[in-house]
Design brief:
With 352 residues, the chain is α+β, with helices and mostly antiparallel strands. It folds into three domains: 136 residues, no CATH class; 90 residues, no CATH class; 107 residues, no CATH class. Helix content is 46%, strand content 15%. It is built from eleven helices and 15 strands. A hairpin with a 4-residue loop joins strand 12 and strand 13. The radius of gyration is 27 Å and the shape is elongated.
Length: 352
């Protein structure tokens, strides 16, 4: 763990405990990814020890009295939210913390790890081993999972009616953007052209070959029609693949040309196209049957990213969780940026 990773621990006043947390998180990172380590640092440093320092000045030990432990756990179960009152004043009401059980479990894991390591390396960890303030009976994971599924189902019920409208809107915008770009490319510089009742003027010649400028005669606002068409296409492609496969955004960005495989039925010899989803959150590989609608979307994506020789460019993908670059791969969700091909990141997909 480098200096940047220790920023969450910088405001802790008790140096021995802060050094202990840094050492523990360094050990924790060996068996975990970078993002999980940061989440664990947030729980242990801010929600746990920083909170104890604020409410118990002078505390310097992991051994907590029953009263101190009980008060701390009550504070973890709730959090302050921001709201605006009827008179415009900013309010901070208390609300239940959705991830409270997970936070308590992280603290319990910290105490139990220290106790276990104290048996293996007493000179290093024994002085920190103490009774864990979080009992096993306080961690009701079944109730937490039930509540989480209930919230997810409710969100699905609320958003599902809007899906047809979203699909229709992205398809319409993709078609309109493609028509505007084609009309602009057919027009001469500074020539007026009309598309779907909208009048635009083609920009002057010159500049980047990847940009097609146009402006409204009345407003004079410049628009890059090539960029509009690119954003509209990838928004449509991402929404279609997500809704037809059910994959996560991170899995979407890791789909490569090699993910499309074929299966021959042993009896009928029928050819079944499959989409191979790389292991991600569940660390299990999945094979999805490619429907005709999904095949059309993937075909449009492949046709867009292919080089003139028919190959898909190789690009390296950066893993935000592991903080590592992957070997160059023929990922499908990529676009041309300047003079190089770059992968479309999960944050970009969410922005689309």
């Amino acid at each position: 763990m480098d200096k940047r990773d220790c920023r969450r621990l910088a405001r802790l006043h008790r140096w021995p405990v802060r050094d202990l947390l840094v050492e523990y998180l360094s050990e924790f990172l060996v068996s975990s990814d970078y993002r999980t380590m940061l989440a664990r640092a947030y729980v242990l440093a801010k929600l746990s020890w920083k909170d104890l320092e604020l409410h118990n000045p002078g505390i310097s030990s992991l051994s907590l009295s029953p009263a101190v432990a009980s008060a701390w756990k009550q504070r973890v179960l709730s959090k302050k939210t921001r709201a605006v009152g009827p008179d415009g004043e900013v309010l901070e009401p208390e609300a239940p913390r959705v991830s409270a059980v997970a936070h308590l479990a992280a603290v319990r894991s910290f105490y139990l790890d220290i106790a276990q390591w104290a048996l293996e390396d007493p000179s290093r960890w024994a002085r920190w081993a103490t009774v864990c303030p979080v009992r096993a009976g306080e961690l009701d994971f079944k109730k937490q999972a039930t509540r989480r599924k209930s919230r997810m189902d409710q969100r699905t019920r609320e958003l599902l009616p809007a899906l047809p409208a979203l699909v229709a809107a992205t398809e319409a915008e993709r078609s309109a953007a493609a028509q505007r770009l084609a009309a602009a490319q057919a027009a001469n510089p500074e020539e007026l052209f009309s598309v779907a009742g909208e009048v635009l003027r083609r920009g002057r010649a010159g500049g980047s070959a990847n940009r097609v400028w146009a402006e409204g005669p009345a407003t004079g606002k410049r628009r890059d029609l090539a960029a509009e068409e690119r954003w509209a296409f990838w928004a449509w492609a991402a929404i279609e693949v997500l809704r037809l496969t059910g994959v996560r955004v991170e899995e979407l960005c890791e789909i490569t040309h090699h993910s499309l495989v074929q299966y021959h039925h042993p009896k009928t010899r029928e050819l079944v196209p499959l989409l191979q989803v790389a292991p991600s959150k569940t660390d299990t590989e999945r094979l999805l049957v490619v429907s005709p609608e999904l095949a059309d979307v993937l075909a449009a994506v492949i046709s867009r990213v292919r080089k003139p020789d028919g190959s898909v460019p190789l690009v390296a993908v950066y893993d935000q969780s592991e903080k590592l670059w992957s070997p160059p791969m023929p990922v499908l969700f990529q676009w041309r940026s300047g003079l190089e091909d770059r992968p479309i990141t999960p944050s970009t997909v969410r922005w689309l």
